[in-house]
Amino acid sequence: MGERPTTAFILSLVGGIFIVIGGLVAAIISAIIGEVIDVIPGLGWLGGLVIVLGVLGLVFGIIVIVGAIMINSGVPEKVKTGSIIVLVFSILSLFVGGTGGFVIGFILGLIGGILGLTWKPEARAPPPPPS
């Protein structure tokens, strides 16, 4: 097996898990708040909007986990693409998902994505010429 950016993978994966949990908690809390807001005339749309933001946080967390799996492939092109995915959706989870995985998911995703982008596989020596 080839060399892999293990630290970038683990940090991105844990960050994605935190973002999923944060999105799930935000969706549940916003559903409860949405029910309360529905009682107030003219604010029913606000409850739906808050639920959508929580669900987006959940989706962004899943996308970060997919990016982490791409980072774990060890293929330089996939590592770079996965790292960019992790970076973009970790940042978006902070603003759109509400909590960014209790902020720790955002930070871990950010560090993992940066580590994945800066990862360089070791140069392998060419095989010796046949004798």
Characterise this structure.
The chain has 131 residues and is mainly alpha-helical. The protein has one domain (6-118). It contains four helices and no strands. Helix 1 (6-38) packs antiparallel against helix 4, helix 2 (44-71) packs antiparallel against helix 3 and helix 3 runs antiparallel to helix 4. The two termini are 27 Å apart. The mean pLDDT is 88.
- Order of H and E elements: HHHH
Shape: rod-shaped
For this entry, what is the oligomeric state of its chains?
Answer: single chain
Biggest sheet record: none
Write the layout of secondary structure elements.
Layout: H1 6-38, H2 44-71, H3 76-95, H4 104-118
Helix pairs in contact: 1-2, 1-3, 1-4, 2-3, 3-4
